[in-house]
Design brief:
This protein folds into two domains: 3-127 and 207-218, Rossmann fold, CATH 3.40.50.1360; 135-203, ACT domain (Alpha-Beta Plaits, 2-Layer Sandwich), CATH 3.30.70. The chain has helices at residues 3-15, 31-47, 58-66, 104-112, 144-153, 187-195, and strands at 24-27, 52-55, 80-85, 89-90, 96-97, 114-122, 135-139, 158-160, 162-163, 166-167, 175-179, 200-203, 205-206, 212-216, 222-225. The radius of gyration is 17 Å and the shape is globular. It is α/β, with parallel strands linked by helices and 228 residues long. The protein has six helices and 15 strands. The strands form four sheets. A six-stranded mixed sheet has the order 2-1-3-6-14-15. Strands 8-11-7-12 form a four-stranded antiparallel sheet. Helix 1 crosses helix 2. Bound molecules: ribose-5-phosphate (R5P). Ribose-5-phosphate is lined by residues 28-32, 85-88, 98-104, 107.
């Protein structure tokens, strides 16, 4: 296991300490969350916990089911106590970029329906300012090349996300366009602009969402309380 993976595993294990018997828990997506779901599967089995997971992607649902963690879809629950998710970049004001794995649409819907949100990251994800990580947009395939040109015209440096010359598609069968912005001086203003562009289903700016960040560091996980 790489050193970075070891840090991800430690934050994943730390995060499941926040999960108590009876909770409905949003399960994020990504390589860090994968370690958390592994730890949760073990906790559920060892402590005979009665919890329900609400997965934010098909791959997380598959992993949870494989580990015998009961899951429900978002519309089958009446609340979510806590969601634990990863992040691609977090700035000094605890605003985040998500969607490096293309899951930010479902993740954001689950996050805004959760009483509390915890992000688990290794220390490489912390930055003064957002933007060195490309900002993902989930876009409707229909007319996406026209949208792309509008993004070019705004100087947003868009790139369709492709693998082996094929468009990457999300769990909702949409495309991803990554904006190579390098720096985002005003995340709120950019979010408003993107919210208003027809064809963008959701962008990866997660603003004023996280309550607690758990950072994996060499000397152990650090828990940062951001907002109540
Ligand atoms: O779309 C993916 C999600 O937003 C992930 O939470 C994010 O990309 C972080 O993933 P990882 O833990 O693999 O760096």
């Amino acid at each position: 296991m790489t050193n970075q993976d070891a840090l991800k595993q430690l934050v994943g294990q730390e995060a499941v300490k926040f999960i108590k018997d009876g909770m409905i828990v949003g399960l994020g997506t990504g390589s860090t969350v994968k370690f958390m779901v592994d730890a949760l599967g073990k906790k559920v089995a060892d402590q005979h916990l009665s919890i329900v997971g609400v997965p934010t992607s098909k791959r997380t649902k598959e992993q949870a089911n494989h580990l015998d963690i009961p899951t429900k879809d978002l519309d089958e629950v009446d609340h979510i106590d806590l969601t634990i998710d990863g992040a691609d970049q977090i700035d000094k004001n605890f605003q985040g970029i998500k969607g490096g794995g293309g899951a930010h649409l479902w993740e954001k819907i689950v996050a805004i329906n959760s009483t509390k949100n915890i992000w688990i990251v290794d220390q490489s994800k912390l930055a003064d300012q957002l933007g060195s990580f490309p900002l993902p947009l989930e876009v409707i395939p229909y007319g996406s090349h026209q949208l792309f040109q509008r993004l070019v015209a705004r100087g947003f440096n868009p790139v369709f996300r492709m693998i082996n010359n094929q468009y990457v598609t999300t769990d909702s069968n949409n495309y991803i366009i990554d904006l190579h912005l390098h720096q985002i001086k005003d995340p709120q203003n950019l979010a408003l602009t993107l919210d208003q562009m027809t064809g963008i289903v959701e962008h990866g700016l997660f603003l004023n969402i996280v309550n607690t960040v758990i950072v994996g560091q060499e000397n152990g996980p650090k828990v940062l309380q951001v907002r109540p």
